[in-house]
Amino acid sequence: MSSAPLLLRLVANSVSISHRVGNIVRDIMKKGELGIIDKGGKNDFQTEADRSGQRCILASLHRMFPKVCLFGEEEEDGNDQVPADWIVGEMSEDVLRHKLPAQYANVKDEDITVWVDPLDGTAEYTQGLLDHVTVLIGIAVKGEAVAGVVYQPYFNYQAGADAALGRCIWGIIGLGSFGFEPKSPPEGKNIITTTRSHGTRAVVEAVEKCEPTDVLRVGGAGHKVLLVLEGKAHAYVFASPGCKKWDTCAPEAVLHAAGGKLTDIHGNKFQYGPTVQRRNTGGVLATPTVEAHKWYLDHIPQDVKDTLPRS
Length: 311
Ligand SMILES: Nc1ncnc2c1ncn2[C@@H]1O[C@H](COP(=O)(O)O)[C@@H](O)[C@H]1OP(=O)(O)O
Ligand SMILES: [Mg+2]
Ligand SMILES: [Mg+2]
Ligand SMILES: [Mg+2]
Prior knowledge:
Elements: H1 6-31, E1 37-38, E2 45-46, H2 48-64, E3 69-72, H3 93-96, E4 112-120, H4 122-126, E5 134-141, E6 144-152, E7 167-172, E8 176-178, E9 191-194, H5 201-209, E10 214-217, H6 221-229, E11 235-238, H7 245-257, E12 261-263, E13 284-287, H8 290-299, H9 302-306
Parallel strand pairs: 3-4, 9-10, 9-11
Antiparallel strand pairs: 1-2, 4-5, 5-6, 6-7, 7-8, 11-13, 12-13
The chain binds adenosine-2'-5'-diphosphate and magnesium ion (3 copies).
């Protein structure tokens, strides 16, 4: 058992678990038995990958950290059979070799809330847009997103049959973010990324008022934050109440650890304590730097903001 502090062990275990979930997600797609259930909303599906991925993550974390409060997107389906090889006790050495920032050295189990999105971008997964999909494990301390794991199971899938699939991006505030190449977005452009499957009039208007030179309509909150981190987009603008805490907690922590900023479209910080409402009613706005964030905030019209209650 590692003697590292609790938060570092939790992140290290989450990174190892995310790799396992990546295998589960890819295996289910390979078999082609997605078991799609329509949850009733607009483009709101659940597949066997969502169900199995969540069981793997929750069972593993619960085994290692029984006193930590865990929330997952999918409702329990009564199937509590978790195959033994889905219980991941391993802790990533990539994480454990780092020193946890001193401000988190004494974090206790009861300070932590974990928000789990076993598959973000499910609509795109069912449509074969595989690189839009991520596995999200977000860790909040006293209500603030402080660490996150964003695993992309199909990273590299267009690179040919021999390419190794998948990558894990993770971060802790005060330590940094790892697993990708940080890059600034191109000068002279204003590339905005937003939803492709959950658009509304307000979503379109908010993007237009931010004067984009290009609009990247892609799936997944995790995926869009990766585009911002890697300089492929200047901002992620989503003026809709569709995202929930498990969609933003991990991406927010990774982005903040890399120097960026993610809030609702009013500029309010999200809260992630155990009693918060699940829905991010105020939408999402993310930029690669703190400075860039204000420009977008100022360009989203008040009448659009008025349709989205503060989170
Ligand atoms: N109207 C909505 N109903 C259900 N889920 C939504 C909605 N809007 C956004 N989401 C969730 O937020 C993610 C980011 O939104 P989008 O892909 O539209 O940009 C979606 O992949 C989905 O997560 P999930 O796929 O985990 O259910
Ligand atoms: Mg969903
Ligand atoms: Mg999601
Ligand atoms: Mg999901």
